[in-house]
Design goal:
Nucleotidyltransferase, domain 5, six-stranded mixed β-sheet, 2 domains, single chain, alpha+beta
Length: about 525
């Protein structure tokens, strides 16, 4: 009997249930696209009912079981990987107290209480007072504590989405140390919850009793309960293996376990992430994430709304391609990507800054396009978006290399955008490095499954699992003459845009806050 792992991957816009074998083959797969990934009661909010995710897991699992037939009996373990920084409040029975708040949510909380005197002094000495105040303002737990005290009182455990899914499968309120990515009091360096004695605990002071039990990647969280078995069709008693978040598992699924390999995700959020065996902050005051590879860390730079920008472009500018693709049974991106070759590198002076959603390090940033002239078309804009995302990722690579004191030798890509050979080649030319693509863009599924296979003894360690399950199928070599063009654009234009426009972004933010509307 060939052993299989059943892995679930919950993304922002869809969910996948996949049967994976020990050679990294996706034996059977079901995907459910979310018609409405989140709802917004107020501008900038992004919420979703917690039950929504479990209902879709059950739906995908039952459909997969029907398609798999006898193969379903070969499942030896279950694993799950989910989006990060998505929080949910559970009562003592494990029922959601209120909807989950997604990572996209932009609500803020005004808190009048000052930090404790000692913390204020230490924050000031470290030059992190404004950072601490901003993070406290945008932390979902603080918003709930202030605006919904009755719901906070009902909250037995404040969990990541991954932890809630673990509970639905096993009845255990546990989560992996590699899943705790969010605005919670977590000590990334030591893989533990903070206590009131820790410096930054006061930024998000969640009582210890409201935080769940932690376990290490590769450990068994629990076993599939009779209730979960009846709802999903998964055999009762199978182990649910702790793995990690979607990006962390994706990095493993790309074989990026050493710092000379850059894992680049062309997903809703575009990221560049490394794996390193020591604690290195990717940016000042920002910790690296705990890796799903035990004992290692994942320094990362994120570009919020990364390849979400492609969906935005399709909706606003590509009605023609969307209609044509539908008539041909294709996806619109395929038609658009074919047209990328019509536009020369650098888009004839058009440069795109992709910061549509500000981050903590750039709280007032906006997206920007500069260099328009009468030669530019909407396809110029499309290519400029792809180049702009890559410029931002290049900036992240340079920052991380400097902080880690390492040099990148290759870029390994995953996510929906990696399916395009055109985008992969543009990426190689821009980075000036070979770009590698594995057998599937579902790298997070491969990474999560590899951890599960190792946990059940199919492999002696995770490196052996990766060797068996990750297969590089495509290499895109850079054109160094084209790279020189991109390098000049990056240094002379892109790298200077944000600082030049920052004063205007600040004015725009002030006007927005004053008038209560976007400018």
């Amino acid at each position: 009997m060939k052993p299989l792992v059943l892995t679930f991957d919950i993304g922002t816009q869809s969910l996948r249930a996949v049967l994976v074998d020990d050679r990294g083959n996706l034996v059977c797969k079901k995907q459910i696209a979310f018609e409405k990934p989140y709802f917004s009661i107020n501008p900038g909010w992004a919420e979703q009912k917690g039950e929504f995710y479990w209902e879709n897991i059950c739906k995908a699992s039952l459909a997969l079981k029907e398609e798999a037939g006898e193969l379903w009996n070969n499942i030896q373990a279950v694993s799950i990987t989910t989006i990060r920084d998505t929080d949910i409040c559970l009562d003592k029975d494990g029922n959601p107290v209120r909807p989950a708040i997604l990572w996209l949510d932009k609500r803020e909380t005004e808190i009048s209480e000052p930090f404790p005197a000692l913390n204020q002094m230490l924050f000031a000495a470290a030059g992190m007072t404004s950072t601490a105040e901003l993070i406290r303002k945008i932390s979902h737990c603080n918003w709930i504590r202030k605006n919904e005290p009755e719901n906070w009182e009902k909250t037995y455990k404040y969990m990541m989405l991954s932890g809630y899914m673990n509970f639905c499968f096993t009845g255990e309120m546990k989560d992996s140390t590699a899943n705790i990515v969010g605005h919670v009091p977590y000590d990334n360096k030591n893989s533990r919850w903070q206590t009131p004695k820790d410096l930054t605990y006061c930024v998000f002071p969640i009582p210890g009793e409201k935080l769940c039990e932690l376990c290490l990647p590769g450990e068994t969280i629990g076993h599939i309960t009779a209730k979960a078995a009846s709802q999903t069709g998964i055999p009762e008693g199978l182990p649910l293996i702790a793995t990690g978040s979607d990006k962390g598992c994706e990095t493993i699924g790309l074989s990026c376990t050493t710092p000379e390999k850059a894992a680049v995700s062309f997903g809703t959020t575009a990221t560049i992430q490394y794996t390193i065996d020591r604690y290195v902050e990717p940016q000042r005051f920002f910790p690296p994430y705990v890796a799903a590879y035990k004992g290692r860390y994942n320094p990362e730079i994120e570009i919020y709304r990364g390849y979400w920008l492609i969906s935005w472009f399709k909706r606003e500018f590509a009605e023609k391609e969307v209609a044509e693709a539908a008539s041909k049974g294709m996806i619109a991106e395929e038609l658009l990507n074919r047209r990328l070759a019509e536009i020369p590198p650098g888009c004839e002076g058009l440069v795109f800054q992709p910061y549509f959603t500000p981050g903590v390090s750039m709280p007032n940033a906006r997206g920007a396009v500069i260099g328009f002239s009468d030669v530019h078309t909407r396809i110029h804009i499309y290519r400029a978006i792809i180049e702009g995302i890559n410029f931002a990722l290049m900036d992240g690579m340079k920052t991380l290399e400097k902080r880690m004191k390492t040099k990148t030798k290759g870029v390994y890509v995953a996510g929906g955008g990696s399916r395009s050979a055109e985008i992969c080649q543009i990426t190689a030319d821009m980075f000036g490095l070979p770009v590698y693509r594995s057998q599937t863009h579902e790298a997070a599924v491969i990474g999560s499954s590899a951890i599960a296979f190792t946990a059940i003894g199919r492999f002696k360690n995770l490196d052996e699992a990766i060797e068996s399950m990750v297969h590089i199928t495509d290499e895109f070599k850079p054109d160094m003459e084209v790279h020189e063009t991109y390098d000049k654009i990056f240094n002379d234009i892109f790298a200077k845009i944000f600082d030049k426009l920052k004063p205007l972004y600040n004015v725009s933010k002030e006007m927005e806050e004053k008038h209560g509307t976007s400018i």
